[in-house]
Amino acid sequence: MTVDIRAVLLLIVLVLAGCMPAKKVQGPGSDHAVQSVESQDAGEKRPQDASAATGNTSPEVCGPVEEVDPLDVLQGREDIPEAESLSAEEQKILDTEISFHVGLDTEENADVQRYFHYYTHVQRGTMDGWLKRAQRYLPHIRERFLAEGLPEDLIYLPFAESGFNPFALSRSGACGVWQFMPQTAHNYGLTVDSWVDERRDPYKSTEAAITYLKKLYGDFGDWSLALAAYNAGEGAIGRALKKTGTEDFFSLCAASDDLKQETKLYVPKFLALVKVARNLEKLGFEPLDMGKRPAAPVQLKAKPGTDLLALSKNLGMDWKSFRELNPSFRKQEAPPSRSVKVAVPGHLVAKAEEYLKRPVTPRQTQYASYRIKPGDTWWKIAKKYNVPVADLQQVNNGGKSKALQVGQSLRIPGQGVAAESAPADVRKWASKRANYLVRQGDTVWSIAKQFKVDPSSLLKANGLKASATLKVGQKLFVPDAGSVETRMAKEQADAVRKDLVNYKVQPGDSLWGIAKRFGVTPVDLQTWNKLAKNSHLRPGDQLKVYAR
Question: Angle at the Cα of 447 (from 493 to 313), degrees rounded to 5?
Fold first, then answer.
């Protein structure tokens, strides 16, 4: 029997290809979102600045990365299509002046026209998505830039950097709405470590961006050069100016062979985006409302090691919604050695404060093992186990997207579970706030199912081990106080106490024995009957017992 060697080779290639990471859809455009924006000091500190200043030895990534539309993943390159002929209205928009001098006539600059056409026609859907995100942050950014005396049109810079995506991560490690590199972020007061990445905080990073832009303008005295330095680094621009003897951005671009094409196109791209953002209604986009702001969340203090995932569940929020309010957190728990601020919606403050008063219980992460099969990709496995791709890669490859190999084993991170030895104060706290009395036939699983809580959360809230056996009459605290389910539990617990039994003490009875018989505790009997701790029972004594 003959075998076509070409068919065999083709089959091998297809099998191997199935184990490669899934590629994101890419289109020509600006290099940001989750691909490469060569921002701050691209030529100076690209690989070595990641952790030196922060003491963080883990990979400086932005992850876990927020899911984004594939159209957000655009490469920054010069081969965008030539602009088709613009309408008279579009040409008029291009002719308008912006709030600071750039030394460029847009009519004569084909690059500005190409980017303008690209974002208003070719990638119009992407621009729509960016505008929706921008509405959340731009009113605040505008207020702060104007208060600091910066040109108003600089507020649109994040369109060129990240599309206003707080979770945007470049291949070079730049992160957040303003795409700061780790060292630059540290230089301007932002914390970047294995627990918190404040580059992802749109408000804190805006303050850093204001300071950095002021510094760049002070260095060069020209906004075009300052913007180029924001992209390539002040050192790269300074050296290029010195080498060419030029004094303005566009002369520099013409004379320098050292500047990357991305940097040469950065200012034209920014100018095009400013023209679009300032003329949204005329271009058929939904206008931005600078007077509209989302309700400001309330900042609360969380103790070291607080389980943030459990907090979000307690508030009735899924992790994605909680993370949108708290984008700086890189893990689902607070740092173990310092307190942090968490943002919660105003109407959930009381509930959050009640949760944050509880003693902190150590959170452990369990891992499952998965053996890679032909056709598997990072995305498929992450979707199957409902974990972010970045988390999966971080656990297995230190955050690197390496090709998968058939037969290779992966660790799949799971949910946190209660620690094996919960502190006694957790049990004490749960007893004081108990809202459920264990009945005959109850199990942790059945109670958790009844009140729609995670069994591990129920165990943790009561300081119990996974192997714990419940006793009839045992008091439990069911998390999610204030919910309909918890109110029902309290009503049931109150109903238990309405069943009054007058018990006559028999010879040989003890407080402990009577309590066990009725499924209550000796302390309950002492409380209901106003007995001292050292009281002795005598045959014939009458006791009040609240039991079912």
Answer: 100
> Token match 């302390």: residue?
523
Q: What is the CA radius of gyration of the chain?
A: 31
Angle between helices 223-232 and 234-244 (to 10 degrees): 120
User: Which among 299, 302, 300, 298 has a CA at the least distance from the CA of 339?
Assistant: 302
Residues 445 and 413: beta-carbon distance below 8 Å:
no
Q: What is the pLDDT of residues 496-523, one digit of tens each?
A: 445 677 888 888 888 888 887 777 788 8
Give the residue from 181, 163, 199 showing the smallest Cα distance to 42: 181
CB atoms within 10 A of CB 204: 18
Name which of 136-140, 207-211, 404-408, 476-480 the model is least confident about: 476-480
Residue 470 CB-density burial (10 A; 0-12 exposed, 13-18 middle, 19+ buried): middle
Give residue 142's pLDDT: 96
Around Cβ 43, how many Cβ atoms within 10 Å?
17
Q: What would the DSSP string read from start to end of 165-205?
A: -TT-B-TTS-BTTTTB-HHHHHHTT--BSSSBBGGG-HHHH
Which CATH class for the 424-546 domain? alpha beta
Alpha helices in 326-468 (DSSP H): 349-356, 378-385, 389-397, 424-432, 444-450, 455-461
In percent, how much of the chain has pLDDT > 90?
A: 40
Amino acid at 56: N
DSSP one-letter string for 140-160:
HHHHHHHHTT--GGGGGHHHH
Q: Assess whether pLDDT exceeds 50 at residue 45.
A: no
Q: Where are the domains of the chain?
A: 31-75+86-277, 298-356, 424-546
Q: What is the dotted CATH code of the domain comprising 31-75+86-277? A: 1.10.530.10
Q: Residues 6 or more apart from 174 whose CB is under 8 A from it? A: 37, 38, 39, 40, 180, 181
Residue 100, class by beta-carbon neighbours within 10 Å (0-12 exposed, 13-18 middle, 19+ buried)? middle
**Dihedral Cα 56, 60, 64, 68, nearest 10 deg:** 160
Nearest-CA neighbor of 123 among 262, 205, 16, 25? 25
Q: Which residue has the tokens 């539309």?
A: 69
Q: What distance in Å separates the CA atoms of residue 33 and residue 36, rounded to the nearest whole number?
A: 8
Kindly tell me if the per-residue pLDDT of 38 is higher than 80. no
What is the pLDDT at residue 386? 67
Per-residue burial over 516-548, b if 16 or more Cβ lie within 10 Å, else e, is eebbbbbebbeeebebeeeeebeeeeebebebe
What CA–CA distance (Å, rounded) separates 292 from 277? 16
- Which pLDDT score is estimated for 461? 79
* Claim: this prediction has a pTM higher than 0.85: no
Which residues are designated catalytic?
Answer: 161
Are residues 514 and 545 in contact, defined by beta-carbon separation less than 8 angstroms? yes
